[in-house]
Design a protein that fits this description.
Low-confidence stretches of chain A: none
Distance between the termini of chain B: 53 Å
Shape of chain B: globular
Low-confidence stretches of chain B: none
Oligomer: heterodimer
Distance between the termini of chain A: 55 Å
Number of domains of chain B: 1
Strand content of chain A: under 5%
Radius of gyration of chain B: 22 Å
Largest sheet of chain A: none
Order of helices and strands of chain B: HHHHHHHHHEEHHHHHHHHHHH
């Protein structure tokens, strides 16, 4: 049997429900009722789905890989963007990373990427200054200043 | 009721602030509809940061105005390029695109715009007519019925929103169990918080819903590229567009029938726009005296799905507001945004929230009319959308998704949940696991748990034997049995 994305997804769901159920067993009775009421059927159904996928996988000769290079690139960029915002906040991190995406990943020309970054900066700064919405300033600023 | 309705109408029409918000919402909705691959769900995600801090009614009006007109413009790329702007607009391609190839693009556009507008208004009327009968039903529901209603909502959506009931149920249960994170409402014990203070209030539903929908859609958009790039522009005159509008009135009975069918389908959680538009397209073919014209550019084939697409929003609003069961995945995200605005769905709507309900009904009607007028004014330039690049929007949507997540809960730690749930949502999308049941689960989870504990305290396990409970249990069983019968038939047929 070859591991494929369908099996991985079913396996992830099985693991998630297993962890939730095991943890729920340590809760007080009232607190454990709902997690067990939901988690146990979820676990059983996940195991059924895993079995279905494993049986189907044996019959399939050529399963595609879990993720293509392009998909991994985009997911990595989204992860990097999120970590960038955690590090440097919305006003600084988001415009810089947005411009970087447009230039490096979307292969836009430098003026277009810069314009995108400036537009993002305008939106973030506008929300913060004009609408008085407090935006996350980033952990770097939080710890350094 | 009339007083409340009229005061809501005047409150919108004579308030420049409300009209400006509605116009803005409509423009954003038209933009998200016309760009293939974006759609209403991402539109709401995009707008969530901007409604933060708004009063409930203006915020809800802004979001609903955006959401209710997405399909009006979504039909335009279907007609001009054979590419649906949103999923439910695919049915419009069948006759809309052949009309363009026959040189009738303007007529098809006129028909789709007027049909969408009329459908939207009829959907709003349908909703307003149902209000007097639904309010007593909602008020008759006890905690026992609300618990079973949550189970029914997940079962319905699981059975109807994907190709596998098991996958749908797993995802729905996943949403429910995610909703148990935080302090237990009965004992106060912390559950699945792992010592993290930000999890004490539970996982923020706005973050979870945004992650499950936005990240996978952005990955898909990045992979697909610009769909309309390189296609030739289509020319048409304004008189062609007017001719299409007249067609809608010429086929007035079909317009009325498909609008009502669409609104009724919207009432049923989980069926959504795809079912509404295809069912109405099928109805137009079946009820036509010349069915052989369909698929080759029949204007009725454009009118039927478009009226249904817009009228279903009126029907879908009813279970969303009164029972907390979103009629579609778009409504589910809208529901999350409403909760963020302080509008709590459920029986409270039947007891003293009529101002919100009427504001939303009028928004549906006015936004649809506004969208048609705006698009008619823009009609000569609509074919230029071929030059727009959807890929440029990807980083903006991600940035605004993070912003929406932060403003919803105010904790940066939610960004880690955003990534984890986003990756899971991407697996769901790629391997055909339906995502709407997750939204239903996480939105209804707290209501289901509270109702369950109250029902157990009042009646014990015998709450399942109450008359209304038995009716709901029978509907749940019938949904499952019908699904199994349908699946077996399909298996035999293939």
């Amino acid at each position: 049997m070859k591991m494929n994305g369908r099996i991985v997804t079913s396996l992830v769901m099985t693991l998630v429900f297993t962890l939730f159920v095991i943890q729920a067993l340590s809760f007080r009775h009232e607190a454990a009722v709902m997690p067990l009421l939901v988690g146990l059927p979820g676990l059983v159904l996940s195991l059924v789905q895993l079995f279905i996928e494993m049986r189907a996988s044996a019959a399939r000769a050529d399963d595609p890989p879990v993720a293509s290079t392009r998909e991994v690139t985009i997911m990595l960029w989204i992860t990097g963007f999120t970590l960038g915002v955690i590090g440097f906040g919305f006003v600084l991190g988001a415009p810089l990373l947005l411009a970087a995406y447009l230039y490096f990943v979307a292969a836009e020309r430098l003026p277009v990427a810069a314009l995108g970054g400036l537009l993002c900066l305008a939106v973030m700064a506008g929300l913060e200054r004009l609408l008085n919405i407090p935006l996350f300033e980033g952990l770097a600023f939080h710890y350094l200043f | 009721m009339l007083d409340s309705s009229l005061s809501s109408l005047f409150g919108i029409l004579f308030s420049p602030h409300m009209m400006m918000l509605m116009t803005l919402g409509v423009l954003v909705g038209l933009f998200f509809g016309i760009m293939p691959g974006l759609g209403g769900k991402l539109g709401i995600i995009f707008l969530i940061p901007f409604v933060f801090g708004m009063d409930p009614i203006p915020g809800a009006v802004f979001l609903l105005a955006m959401h209710s007109v997405v399909h009006t413009s979504g039909a335009i790329p279907s007609i001009l390029f054979g590419i649906p702007g949103t999923g439910p607009d695919a049915a419009t391609i069948v006759d809309g695109y052949p009309m363009t190839r026959k040189g009738e693009a303007g007529r098809a556009l006129g028909a789709t715009l007027c049909a969408s507008g009329i459908g939207g208004v009829i959907g709003a009327v349908f909703l307003s007519l149902l209000l007097p009968s639904v309010e007593p039903i909602v008020l008759a529901f006890s905690p026992a019925e609300f618990f079973l209603l949550a189970v029914l909502g997940i079962t319905f959506i699981a059975a109807l929103s994907g190709d596998s009931l098991v996958k749908g149920l797993i995802v729905g249960l996943f949403g429910l169990i995610i909703a148990t994170v935080g302090l237990d409402p009965v004992s106060g014990q912390d559950r699945y918080t792992f010592g993290q203070l930000f999890l004490w209030d539970g996982i923020d539903p706005v973050t979870a819903v945004i992650a499950i929908f936005a990240i996978p859609e952005m990955v898909a958009l990045a992979l697909r590229g610009n769909l309309t790039a390189g296609r030739s522009e289509t020319s048409y005159s304004m008189s062609d567009v007017v001719r299409g509008c007249i067609d809608v009135f010429r086929h007035w009975f079909l317009t009325l029938r498909t609008s009502l069918i669409g609104a009724f389908i919207g009432l049923i959680p989980g069926l959504g726009g795809d079912v509404a538009s295809w069912l109405c397209y099928g109805h137009a073919v079946q009820s036509s005296k010349t069915p052989e014209r369909f698929g080759k550019g029949a204007v009725e084939g454009v009118i039927a799905p478009e009226t249904a697409n817009n009228s279903k929003e009126g029907g879908a609003l009813l279970p969303t507001l009164y029972f907390g069961i979103p009629g579609s995945s778009g409504m589910a995200i809208l529901l999350g945004a409403f909760v963020m605005l302080g509008i709590q769905p459920g029986p409270g709507f039947a007891a003293g929230k009529s101002d919100v309900v009427w504001a939303l009904i009028w928004t549906l009607a006015i936004a649809n009319i506004l969208a048609v007028l705006l698009l008619l004014a823009m009609a000569p330039w609509l074919s230029r959308i071929a030059g727009l690049r959807t890929g440029l929007l990807i980083p903006f949507v991600i940035a605004l998704s993070l912003l929406g997540s932060y403003l919803g809960a105010g904790a940066w730690q939610n960004f880690m949940l955003f990534l984890g749930l986003g990756a899971l949502g991407w697996l769901f999308k790629k391997y055909d696991w339906p995502r709407p049941p997750f939204v239903i689960g996480i939105v209804l989870g707290p209501i289901a748990e509270n109702s369950f504990h109250k029902a157990m305290a009042l009646w014990g396990p015998a709450f399942l034997l109450r008359p209304l409970s038995l009716v709901l249990l029978a509907i749940i069983a019938a949904t499952l049995v019908l699904y199994i019968i349908r699946a077996r038939r399909e298996a035999v047929a293939t």
